[in-house]
Batch of 3 targets.
Target 1
Amino acid sequence: MYRDIAAKLINGIQDGQFEIKLPTEAQLMEMYHASRNTIRKAIDLVYQQGLLRRVQGSGYFITSIQLQHKTVVNLSARGLFSDNMHPRQLVSKVLTFDTIKSDYDLSKQMGVPQDSELYRVIRLRYWHEQLYCLEKAYYLKSVVPYLSTEAVNTSIWDFLNEAYGLGVANSDDYLSLTNLSEEDASLMQLGHGDTYLALDSCNYYKNNGLLDFSHTVFVYPDLALYFHTTNLANN
């Protein structure tokens, strides 16, 4: 339950519902009909994403990075809340949605046997009517036996959570600069060989089972990257 509340708090921060600070623990307990312990665990998860700063005796304030930058990719939000690393209200244009068997290269990237059955989703994503990214994602059918067209057009992660109770427990992420292949350039109507930021991710659910692999190329102008770290020795 606390993970659901944490996701709602993150959405509230991103949507401007909480602009300066979070409500008090007592107010959040009333809002979400939850115990103090549940609320505290939810707040801790949001804090780990770098969206809050703790002020002794005053509560939790929204971090300035969240307020000042509207084109932030919050890499700290990888894992527990995969959708929350992107800006809210992205619009998807699905280019490919089918089932394939993994070839040698894809099997190696995912660490799965060759010819594993996968859902393949290739989509362009737009923010404020401008191209935000190209996303190629591959979901193991052994873990996700059914993926709906509606989910692919809206939020795959919401569907996985509601249909299968699947969430991302942790992820391996690799950031790099990539030169657009001829295929990717054609899909985005950009220049072949142009350089953009790419994120390759393997997402894992509980017990470290692989859920999916994705390759995302970000092309939105003035995009900022944010990553929050916590010094555990000082906690």
Target 2
Amino acid sequence: MLLEDKTAVVYGAGGSIGSALARGFAKEGARCFLVGRTPGKLDALAEEIRAAGGQAETAVLDALDEAAVDDHADTVAARAGSLDISVNVITQDAVFTPLIDMPVADFGRAIEKAATSQLVTTKAAARHMVKQESGVILFFGGADYHRGQPGLGTVQVGMDTVEAMRRQWACELGAHGVRVVTLLTGGIPETFPSIPEVEPQKHAIVDATLLRRAATLDDVGHVAAFVASDRARTLTSTQVNISCGAHGD
């Protein structure tokens, strides 16, 4: 298995993307530590992983609480012997107001939460990865700097901010054998609610691809497991494009 003897921490594991990542890691042999704020969702996912023969443990904490995140990372590293993979897919508090109408305070809060959460969790993992001279930190979402779309408010700005952090982390951690990679997505229709109002958006995601299909949650887990494995050891400071051609060169 690709991730045998590896330890993965997934922040936001109770959500659809986080669950997909955890399943992908667990299927490839990783011991998964599932972190979030909704105990029921975390426990259900952990039971599912264990029923399939995987390893999973849960922790309820706020990813903005630096002390709690650090304590959890220390516990994981001590119990498992290493902290090999870390990914934070906690969603930002998106504000879809056009920037010209955007309340400054709302903008600041949204961007601050996205950046702070990523900084806190990445710092916690990086401390251990630098010591062990290995590790993979994954980001999710990405940015296509050649395309823009009006009406996204803080969403794309937040992802661009996180991407800037990813580039800086990669150059600072590379010398210690730590890889930092983003999964670039054009959208995952399965994550949308099954209501008529969002059907046009789901179709738009598919229509924007070259393959005429969008990535699935299973695709997300499979690619993430590969990128986190030693078979992808040459990949860092880059985005791995899982958009089915919606984003291109």
Target 3
Amino acid sequence: MVGMRLQVGRVCDGWLLGDFGYALKTWLLTRLTNPQTDRECRYNDAHSHTRSVVERAIGQLKCRWHCLDRTGGMLLHRPNKVCHIVLACGVLHNVTHRHGIPLGEVVAPAPDDLDPEPVYVLPNQQAIQARQRVIAAI
């Protein structure tokens, strides 16, 4: 749902981050396969670090709220209801965290070098320029 909003331009101030299993888009940034400059290396490091934080957060939510983990990656409800379920799980997770209720065992996310093989789709020029603008700002 967020990706569709980004794709049609309804959200202008953000990006999704994807691993090598995704094609570069103007709204979905992927790592560079062969960084050449310090800025490109910093971009890849920032991308990996951010994805790691997000993956850890998703792992914690799935660990605490099994309704998110046992679905095979898909909640079988309307997208609007799924958004409410995930939001409620996030709010409840924050409440339990503030009250010191232990999470239980959390499985560590896989290291970044276990990303799927790169998708060899030629990105369009606008997508390449969008990623270059982000890299230039680092």
